[in-house]
Write the structure tokens for this entry.
Amino acid sequence: MKAGIKFLIISVIMFCSIDCIGKTQSPIKGTFISLASDLHIGWNERDWAREFEAMSKLGFDTLIIQCAAKIDSDSGQVICFYNSSKFKINRCHTDWIIAEAEKRGWKVYTGGIEDHVGDDADNPKFLELSKMIADEIYAKYNSVKSFAGFYISTELMLNDAGEAGSAAIYSVYGKYLKTKYPDKKVVIAPFFATDASRRCQKKNLTKWWHDRSPDEMATQMRLFLKKCPADIVAVQDSTCWDVTMADLRKYLPVIADGVRAEGREFWVDTEVFSTDDYENYSPAPISRIAEQLEIEKNYKCVMYCFNWNMDPNGSEETRSLYRQYRNMYFPK
């Protein structure tokens, strides 16, 4: 996970709904998928069917596409990951994903244009393009049962969320989605930091947030939600930022209460990656993931991104974590 000036790049998170760890049932019930990388070059319907099969073996039934389009840094053109009639097409990944999800009875939430560090959070042109993408996605997939809603890919820093909620990407675009498409849910994925994030302090990454107690963090979340009509708040557990297990036990229940007090759903994004320098990332040890999930087992949790960290069709590291996870939760 990389830090931006005021927002964070998610690198891998899981979302899960668990009854009890220890059963032969996957705690994680879904995942984010990134389409704006080079991971899927050359992929087709068969590749996505194979990917869904691997995820289904872990008990997943929900998928969040982080973004369905991006803006090319050289040309400034919008490039879509679906069969668009208005913009340049990269590959029709979203079409294939939703078709496969429909076969399996999954739910899919679709992101708009990539904006992982919030650079375009108040950019009028970006907002108008985002609306156009959302309109086209809704028109294409509304008749498909598996299309459950939208994901706002700009990541919110929860420590100062009360002020950030005024950003147009939340207050304007979020309201646009809920007003025009009230039958679809809107998902956001904020992150947070605590005093334990010492490595961040050494890299001067903490100067742009305020330290908050659990109650203060929950208040910030409630202030934000009064400005942004998100239905589902999938809070990153931020363990990659050195948020400790003790802090998870203190913060998550209070933040969850704040979210629910505003009438919204609370999910946890379980980060299943590690980094030494906030530049390079690798799958986290299974022992750490098990500890996170033991704390988070009473919430619905999601992983971001399966194909970067636990993919049996990926690198040896991701294949290894996939095997370890299956052996832990699906023992033979």
Summary: The first helix runs from residue 45 to 56. DSSP finds twelve helices and 16 strands in the chain. The mean pLDDT is 85.
